[in-house]
Amino acid sequence: MISKNILLEAIYNKTGVYITTKNDCRAVSQFIAAEKIGFLSESTLYRFFLYNSNSNKPYKNTFNVLARFCGYPDWNAFLKYYDSNYLFNEPKFLNKSIEIVVENFVINENFSALIGVFDTLENENYKTKEFFGVKTFLSFNKSKLFPKFIKEYGYHSFVRNILIEALYDPQHRIDGYAEGIKNYILTSDINSENYIQDLMFAQSVLFRHYYLTGSKKAEEYGKKLYQETEWDLSLKNLHIFPKTRFMTYKFWYLNQKKDFKTQHKAYSKNYIDWITEEIQNTNSIIELNIIYQTSLEVFQNLNIKTLKNKVNILIKNKIKNQQNENIEFNKLHNANGILNILPV
Q1: 299/293 Cα distance (integer angstroms)
Q2: What pLDDT digit, counting tens, does each position of 232-255 carry?
Q3: Contact by Cβ (8 Å): 24, 18
Q4: Residue 336: closest CA among 137, 124, 122
Q5: pLDDT tens per residue across span 294-309
Q6: Distance CA 197, CA 200 (A)
């Protein structure tokens, strides 16, 4: 039997009344009577929609009248339409169907088919890409195949730009996530104009992960970031997120040094000068939140109250100055895309 919820929605779409009380039943009964397609009493509607009893079996005439009221010749026509068309227009049905397809591609290691889906999304808007990216994230969260997938297809634009970068997960909830990020580095094109930015992004998130989990690998990736690579010439041209990570995570890197206090004092002044300029130069709430959330995490972790307060003041003043000019500043965004959708 078709769900009563479908009938309730169809009646609501026509009358603006969603049946939840006896008064609603009376109103709908009057609507039906006014169309002269048959008569269903208030009590009939109540027993059908609101009275929970398996023994209540409405007459066929009740179904036919409801179907005609919703615009169909009879009950069979109503069933035929909603058994097909309704499902294909039902968001929950579509959502679950896509999830099942993507999950099967992942579990069965049919990666080429999954990439084929990504290829069809090339010219779609960001929210569509994000939707499929999240479904893919959830599927890999149920397997141990993420590193293998990134090793094979880490070069693909959707995989890089959406699955890894836009939907980066600070919590590393996918099994083998860190290894997947390393494979992202290995599949980066050294000749790409984005190579430096991609390298900084990946090394920063790995350094953060290893530092916060107390791994000895934090020292290795700290050296990659702050000793073995010269970023100065390209820093100004990088996206605000990898740049902010790089600049702020340096406090964690310095915290590993014996002369932390001396180096921290010297670097703090440079950092405040840098972050002040970045805040002044942006009019984006998303970028402000990237700066704020990244710095807040580090300064809270290290209990650096002076820098935390300075950044708070800079951010608040910027928002206050822009409040009457740009409604975007009233919106709240999360700096990490996947946490907007799948919070911990």
Answers
A1: 10
A2: 667 778 888 899 999 999 999 999
A3: yes
A4: 137
A5: 999 999 999 999 999 9
A6: 5
